[in-house]
Amino acid sequence: MNTFFKHTIYQRITNSLYAKIAIVFIVIISLISVSSWLNIPLSPYLYDETTLDILANPSFIHPLGTDNLGRDLLARIIYGSRLSLLVGFFTAIVAGIIGSIYGAIAGFYEGYIDNILMAIIDVIYCLPDLLVMLLLGLVVGKGTIGILISLSLISWMGTARIVRSCFIQLKNEDFVNAAKVIGANDFYIMFKHILPNTLSSLLVSLFITIPQAILAESTLSFIGLGLEAPQCSWGTLASDGMSCLRNHPNLLFFPSFCIFVTVLSLNLFGDNLRDALDPKIRIQLKK
Amino acid sequence: MFKFIVQKILLAIPVLWIVATVTFFLIRFVPGGPFDNERNLPEEIMHNLKAKYKLDKPLWYQYTFYLNRLAKGDLGISYKYTNRTVTQILQQAFPVSAELGLSALSLAIVSGILFGSVSALNRGKFIDFLLMTIATAGISIPTFVFGVMLMYIFGLQLKILPVGLWESPRHAILPIITLALAPTANIARLSRSSILDNLNKDHVMVARSLGFSETKIFFTHVLRNSLIPILTILGPMTALLLTGSFVVEYIFAIPGMGRFFITAVSNRDYDLVIGTTLVFALVLLFSNGIIDILYRLVDKRILHNSGNL
Lengths: 287, 309
Description:
The complex is a heterodimer. By secondary structure, chain A is mostly helical. Chain A has helices at residues 3-15, 17-35, 73-109, 111-125, 129-140, 143-170, 174-182, 186-194, 199-222, 234-242, 250-277, 279-286.
């Protein structure tokens, strides 16, 4: 990546107003999430039995209200952002690593290795995501680690397919042949020469996986099969809020809104990133 | 074409076998057993219960026993819903889920392509901007949030639609809309870009220069070609609908497959879990097969390139 490339990509992404807003939101949400590691005045677990602030409506002291145990919702949402974002980013990175290695091997060798590897992906595709996640989650155990592992294990297939098709396109290029002539081994060619060329596709699929993982985690937690108390993510907060829907819709609304804004920002950013990195669109823009 | 269909059916059998095997071992590795929730049973009763369902035998025996029975088309018995076979439960739950899923899928395809076309034909105008903003929001909002939102507005506040259960067509409105949202948004986004691609193709230009009306060009020359990418994502879309149906059935208390599956997993109702999974896999295989066939019907080039298939 030379500076020119970086410069134009940067310009193209920031050209769109949506992308700018999305970046601002992503930065703000990440900062809030990081800041929760510092001491915030209202701990999400802290509640005072002597005050009768149970299920309070939004007020000056509790900007978003309190839940059925008197815990401040704003503090819990800030605290919950940790897990929600962690799940998204961790899953995307692990899925990216597994997917690129798998796709690299399948695309580089083709033939029967490719057939077998792709058949495995097809079989996994024949199972609904949620079902695989549930079963895997139960096997590796509930809790954060379980969710992280099971989400990572079902998210890499898309990336693997993308990397594979990139490899099939690139493996007959001159630079690969040149490397072969010099005597470089397959491993070196795959990861040193070809993989860097798939970087833009990898980046795009990374930004598709993050919002999907966040959605998946919140959905799992919402139906009660993901994270459980005392852990708290936006999904579990929404799940808790569901029980008080009739009289205290704020308990469901605010966590859901956080999920929505985060996922929307990531999706908008991902869309613009894809457009910026897509060579076809770049040519169209030149015309 | 006939050979192709036979090939697909033959390929489905090993896939289903793998799915059954994987699910069989996964669910048995999950800690806890089907009778853990019962109140402290005496040792002998527990032993008899396990013996009745052959759970005291070694794993390989249970596996071969299961496969043997499966080959005869018997899915086993539910441990929790006593006296009901898995087949009976599925017979009851499947039509409900199928009705919900198919209605949502048709709604998503029709409205998705409609919105996509309107958006593409008005490229750069306000309506395009509006529809695409809604579509991006549509893929970003979790299904459960949208469902609960609809439930709150139409069920609890306006009180014009029921908030749950599956009894009359009125009960179906909210679940179907909830389930259709994400696929609709996806299809709308995809069909917009695919129609835009095709609007600038040479053959469309020729048709235009020959003086055909824009309407005729759109329906005969553009739309048909634009459908191909949409067909490709219908497979993943069916999977998305199945996943969505878990959530929708949970929120709206609909007695469908998703709901049975979730309770079966938490009850460790082994046979019911595998049975439901197999039906899910079968549905996905079937829909992917149909999509492959449609693919060949819409795009004659594939038929041509793949020889005699």
